[in-house]
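Intended use. Records like the one below are meant for learning the mapping from a protein sequence to its folded structure. Do not use them to infer anything beyond what is encoded.
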Amino acid sequence: MLLRTLTLAALAIFAQGAHAADCEATVDGTDMMTYSVQTLEASRTCQQFTLHLTHSGNMPKSVMGHNWVLAKASDAEAIDADGGSAGFDQGYLKPKDPRVIAHTRLIGGGETDSVTFSLAELKSDEAYEFFCSFPGHRTLMKGVFKIVG
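Structure written out for the chain above:
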């Protein structure tokens, strides 16, 4: 219990300034259908970026599952719509969707997952969005991913 409390406190402090000078970040999803961060910045000096997703809630992934999906902002709505037909077993993502830049697996309360991806093809002047593809979640669970520097 103490470890969980310390982890949540660290996440709260980190969420106040989720800048990625060290080429990684942590985002927490909750049973209240929220992410702990709405903006992430990755330095152009980073070759790769690692995103750690935690789920501090208690609900199972079949009810309140969360993932973290990165795409061009212009593709996010269509990816989300296609994910609904892909279904639970596919993590609500169309398999091998070329519009998806990176994603974690779908996780439930108390679970974690991470994804590391290259920043080589991402552009500073492009708009990127991260979101949860669980049906209906993107409405509240989305944010901006920026390449800076």
